Amino acid sequence: MIEFVHVSKTYASVEALHSVDLRVPAGMTTVLIGPSGCGKSSLLRLTIGLIHPSSGHVFFQGNEVVSTTILALRRKMGYVIQEGGLFPHLTARANVALMANYLKWDELEVNRRLQELAELCRLPLAGLDRYPGQLSGGERQRVSLMRALMLDPDVLLFDEPLGALDPMIRADLQTDLKRIFQSLRKTVVLVTHDMGEAVFFGDQIVLLHDGRVVQAGLPDELFQSPAEPFVTAFINAQRPPWTTSHGG
Amino acid sequence: MRAFRQLVLLTLCFAAAPTIPTFAGESAPEVRIGSKQFTESVILGEIVARTVTHAGGRGEHRRELGGTRVLWDALVRGEIDIYPEYTGTLREEIFARRGIRDEAALRRALAGYGVSATQSLGFNNNYALGMKRELCDQLSIHTISDLRGHPDLSFGFSNEFMDRADGWRGLRNRYGLPQRNVFGIHHDLAYRAVAGGQIAVTDLYTTDAEIGYYGLCTLADDLHYFPDYSAIVLYRHDLESRAPQIAVALKQLAGRIDTSEMVRMNRLVKIGKVPESKVAADFLADLHGQGSGIRVESSTEQVYQRTREHLFLVTLSLGAAILVGVPLGIISAKRPVLGQLVLGVTGVIQTIPSLALLVFMIPLLGIGGPPVIVALVLYSLLPIVRNTYAGLNHIPPESRESAEALGLPPGARLRLIELPLASRDILSGIKTSAVINVGSSQKTENKAR
Question: Is A215 left (phi over 0), alpha (psi -120 to 50) or beta?
């Protein structure tokens, strides 16, 4: 579905990605995880063409992601970022329907899709006519997810979608997201720095460190057969204190 | 979004504005008349303008355009077709170095510039000496020569008249005047001093409104010391071919206004506060007989007319500034290097004094509306450009990237997301511009005249 071939990315003189090779298989959830600055967000931004590789190639469904193809390819991707990135001057409804309206969908069809998505994402219908500033953090993420799903994309890209939410709402949304992923059977790429979240969502987990892929595999493989000491160190650092007191 | 709609609406209003004012009478030849910045010239300008209209033209009077030099240059360049002048001014100021002695020489010099002159309108606006009428009668002084017999009279002259070689000194030598009690006094105070008896004699212009008001008499220049300032009307040669009936009508004004008539009209305007247009209309009505169909523009109409002109200037220039400024602001935000240049240039324009800007533009665009509008557009530009630039740059990066990630092409991103998000800033820039514009339009307009 998505393929990175020898992709490097340099910002000013700092190298964020070193010759990354990675395949994201279709129909399952791939979680990109690693400490801050490891390059996980850069991989998402390369996929949707917000940045371009310094060297190497990015492919989506066999098409290279370059400036000439990017507009068409973006419409097959849904992108959700940490704070939602909703347009403050538009209502939730207008945010979600923006692209469909731009593509001149039939009004009935737009409304039908809005109903369907509000139900799927469990957004109260009254919330649709509010502006982002009038919605709670969790509701904003639900609207953002609806917007990403509106055109029924082939892949969903999440950049720390739950990072800014308090734990209760976060747990609630995690459950909903997983249910949605399972019911839609879409290809999902999710960036997080939380190991628990990675295990909860991930069919495949890709651990990155300093712009390199350290290990990619099933969650169990990372626990059972770590490729490097860093893998174990990263997992242990994330383990909550009450489990370390029992472990040994 | 509401703010953005307002912005769009506002822009559309301004774009449509230039089509609003319409002028009737396409076939009548358009004739522009200028006048100088003093009452008499404005009255004469009004009389000429109404004469032109009466003769079937469309007379447009540009009041108080400036001083002698501005009007002469405008006439020679064809920006105006007609203006009232004085023979003495032409000899002493415009053709000062030519040493023109008689009327034929003056007409030849004018012809060299493609300009014709009517015969004298019938009065002179000369330097003269004036006294209180009772005193004249009491001492039976009627000419300047008569002053020789009264060495103890006190003279108070304007400072200019005291200083000029062709003023008091020359006069004293020519007439052999014996008076010792001579001092300088402000011209405005001189009339009251004469009327109050503090001084006996002062210098004045023969058509000054105050002559009648204070009951003064003017002393005849029996030795012809003062140069002759006959009032004439100058017009471009091409008027003869373009609108012969108008040239004929102008020539017919010759000899129609005598000195007392001009004094009376000056007095009506300056002291009676009657509008120049009314005075001119009444004069022509008398000249052509009653009911000649000359329309009098009342002062309410004048206020209405000026307000309309002002609104038109502001609307047009602000509209143009929006149409130019917003795109410049967008370019500045999208191309940072070019943007610095654009912001720098518009910033520098803002610091140029309006008079200097007009001086630059008058050779390119002439006088009247166009240079004022261009100047106003330039002054209104900076706040709009800067606020558009700032508004676009202040858009949160997550909004900008979300728009990109959705797959909207650049034009749609600008229209649907970026401009609406920047509209609050852009509108406040337009408000600032509007305030600057309204404030400076009157100023700039006056300077251009």
Answer: beta
Pairing label, strands A55-60, A29-33? unpaired
* A99/B407 CB distance under 8 A: yes
Q: Please answer whether residues B442 and B26 qualify as being in contact, where contact means their C-beta atoms are separated by less than 8 angstroms.
A: no
Name A205's Cβ contacts closer than 8 Å, sequence gap at least 6: A30, A31, A33, A198, A199, A216, A217, A218, A219, A222
- Give the pLDDT confidence of B182-198 residue by residue, as tens digits: 888 887 788 888 888 88
3-state secondary structure B27-46: CCCEEEEEEECCHHHHHHHH
- Tell me the pairing of strands A187-192 and A14-24: unpaired
Tell me whether A150 touches chain B (CB under 8 Å).
Answer: no
A222 touches chain B (CB under 8 A): no
Min Cα distance A146 → chain B (Å) is 12
What Cα–Cα distance (Å) separates residue A32 from each residue in A39, A148, A184, B390, B406?
9, 19, 20, 36, 22
Find the CB nearest A81 among B4, B398, B421.
B398
pLDDT along chain B (449 residues), means of 10: 54 43 55 90 93 87 87 92 92 83 88 92 89 90 90 87 80 90 82 86 87 86 87 92 88 88 90 88 80 56 80 88 93 89 87 76 70 83 91 91 91 93 93 85 59
User: Across the interface, which of B4, B404, B406 has its CB nearest the CB of A98?
Assistant: B406
Asked if B407's CB is within 8 angstroms of A89's CB, the reply is: no
Structure tokens at A1: 């579905």
Task: Test A83 with B398 for CB contact under 8 angstroms.
Answer: yes
The verdict on A71 touching B (C-beta cutoff 8 Å) is yes
Enumerate the β-bridge partners of residue A22.
A4
How far, in Å, CA of B131 to CA of B203, rounded? 9
Size of interface A-B (CB pairs under 8 A): 51
Select the residue of A48, A87, A89 nearest B405 (Cβ to Cβ). A48
Residue A188, CA distances (Å) to A148, A215, B89, B137, B240 in order? 12, 19, 90, 114, 87
Cβ <8 Å between B407 and A75? yes
Q: How far apart are CA B416 and CA B403, in angstroms?
A: 9
Whether the Cβ atoms of residue A102 and residue A151 lie closer than 8 Å to each other? no
CA angle B395, B398, B399 (to 5 degrees): 55
| CA distances to A58, A122, A184 from A114, in Å | 32, 12, 16
What is the b/e burial string over B306-344, where b = at least 16 CB atoms within 10 angstroms of the residue's CB?
Answer: eeeeeebbbbbbbbbbbebbbebbbebbeeeeebeebbe
Residues of B in contact with A71 (CB under 8 A): 407, 409
- For the entire predicted model, the pTM comes to 0.58
Instruction: Quote the ipTM score.
Output: 0.86
Partner residue opposite A50 with nearest CB, options B405, B409, B417: B405
Residues of A in contact with B409 (CB under 8 A): 71
Contact A89 B408 (CB under 8 A): no
